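User: Please predict the structure of the protein below. I'd like the answer in structure-token form so I can feed it into my own downstream comparison script.

Assistant: Understood. Taking the following sequence of 353 residues as input:
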Amino acid sequence: MLRYEALGGDEFAPETVYLNSASSGLLPARSAAALREALTESASYGTMGRDYFAPATAARRAFGRLTGVPEERVALGSSVAVRSAFVAASLPAGAEVLVAEGDFSSLVNPLAAHPGCTVRAVPLEALAEEVRPRTALVAVSAVQALDGRIADLAAVREAARAHGARTYVDITQSAGWLPLDIAGFDFVVCGAFKWLLCPRGTTFLYLGGDAADWPPAVHAGWVAGEDVGESNYGVIGRPAATARRFDEPYAYYSYVAAEHSLGLMAEVGVAAVHAHNTALADRYRAGLAEAGFPSRPAPGSAIVSTPGLAGAEPRLAAAGVRIAVRGGLLRASFHLYNSARDVEKVLALLREA
């Protein structure tokens, strides 16, 4: 049954019909309050008045719980692109990297830019069957940012294992609304400022496999030492025993808010968000089809992209609807703060247009 009420209670009160979570999620009230408090404190005596590490530690733990992986395998950073460069640096010279055509640039471009890699792009639906003995890495987004298509991650994982290839999965467009099992992959990255409702500058990296086989921490900073009090100057003599050895210095304010955003997502639950988001997206797809505007096929996705409607975006914006145009497609993304009323308003405006 389609819910007419948004999830999240008093945490959200958007002044618009916000259908652009695939670009950036809304910040919950609790996260905004924590951020304001931290900023106010910093205006008088700076972040040294607080524990710099506490928010990052809490956010790491919360992400591990939400995704079902040990926090000891989670590293913190600033962007997907930096993590892609890290993964690229771990590959042998001449490595073939298999990617999906049109996947997000922050995932694939650092891999293509690395002088030791050769990137081969194939259709998303053919990714698993295109793995070859020479393939060193398969990199793919769990959900495609352009049109919401969902990758068959299980098939990709099995094909990679059969050919001895590593796997690198970007869950930026799926974490928080799509139930996922990430434990069987070698690297999993997540920019948390979209569906996980964190500020920009919040990125998580899960490392699978045997810790003894983890690559060198080429982007590690001073926070990556086993004893951070000893790792401020010179070469770090004792890297952290956990995935913290791959941490970048933390964007403090981003992680102050992230702790609270991830807490809210855990309270609501991924299963509830998934049911809510996909019900709204399905109703929107049906309404588009009824009006003669079939969307790009992406069954089960919270992202709906439609050709032929990009020109309607200014009209929607003038009516208070925040939606995106990507690749000539009108892209709507439905999240917990949306309701069935939002769907009906957008469909009515599109019919009028």
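That's the full token string. The mean pLDDT is 94.
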